[in-house]
Amino acid sequence: MHLNKKERTALEGIAASVSLPYRAVREAKGLLMAGDGVANLEHRRGSRRLTLNGAKWRSHFESDGVEWVGEVHEGRGRKPVITQEQIDQMINDTLHTTPGDATHWSNRTMAEHCGLSHTTVQREWQARGIKPHLVKTFKISTDPHF
Which of 27, 97, 108, 129 has a CA-to-CA distance to 115 between 20 and 30 Å? Predict the structure, then answer.
């Protein structure tokens, strides 16, 4: 693999960085080794994973350049199991309905209502600052001795 002076300088800067993600540093080091003529099998350093990624790094580098180093490419990673429509429906039900047997939703009753896990409900409520158990208005006491 041939690296021009500009590409080599950019990769050396990434490889020497202490603040960039490990993924970017590792890929830059692998590409520098490839630029020096080291084969994929010699990139190993005790890791089969690095060997398999070396060919991918080279092909991505040749097509995308230095800018892609350290980036996660489209289609990689865990796919979402819960759709955005399910989350939107759960939030809508939380804000605009009440359960038949209680005054407000708990994360477990909402989870049962929507078919999601209670941790998912709690995480989405927390992300949006929704607290259905809190009363937002002042209530005057009906106690005559108050």
Answer: 129
